[in-house]
Design goal:
- By secondary structure, this protein is α+β, with helices and mostly antiparallel strands.
- The protein folds into two domains: 99 residues, no CATH class; 99 residues, no CATH class.
- 42% of the residues lie in helices and 18% in strands.
- The strands form four sheets. The protein has a two-stranded antiparallel ribbon. A two-stranded antiparallel ribbon has the order 3-4.
- Helix 2 packs antiparallel against helix 3.
- The chain is extended.
- The protein starts with a helix and ends with a strand.
- The N terminus is likely disordered.
- Keywords: Signal.
Length: 230
Amino acid sequence: MKQRILQFFSALLILTSFLACNKDGESYETLTRLANLKIEEAVSLTQGHTCGTLDEWRIDTLSYAYVPVHPSFEDAYKKLVAEANELYRQADKLRGNYPNYDVLRASLPPHFGIRCIENEVKVAAATDLSVNEIDSRLDQLLPELTIFFDDVPCNDAKLWNVATIRKDCDFIDILITNTDNFYVFGQMLKTYTHLHAAKRHLNNSPECPTVNENPAKGVTCENGKPKISY
């Protein structure tokens, strides 16, 4: 009898906790599912639009994609995203987490603007570009990356590092150091990397060697200038 009483109160406690977390059906899973549906509905508003005046469109960033937004549906789109954010916040509170959730903040690959792709308004990815455009962008970015820190004096070699990128299958070493505008360099490097990968994908290029036979060993300072040692 005593064991049955303990089992009864244990079951009652579990049921009470469940009801507390699911009042009006608002469990973490339910709220998250509703939020996801709001985002899907918002994204659907941005899809299937035939090309017109592209200057009328702007780009928004969700947690997993860029989307094109037009004034004709922007209010409805923003309302859905705001409702989704609120549902995500409520869901996180049920788990005891307060991450200041915002589906508009994310780290995504670079985009290349609003474009007409297959007669539909879309946000272009690197793979949506032609190989000629990719080559042109790579040719412009590479020298900009290699000289980005040329004006920074080298007084302490330990403050410098070497970043290695690819030009076709060749390894290219770049001297880098932490500066106030390092974020700009980082974005340029990310763009270059994605463009290079897109070019190889579009060309069905063969695999490049993965091992650098002549890797950089470090950085030294000579007459106030950084120099890579091999």
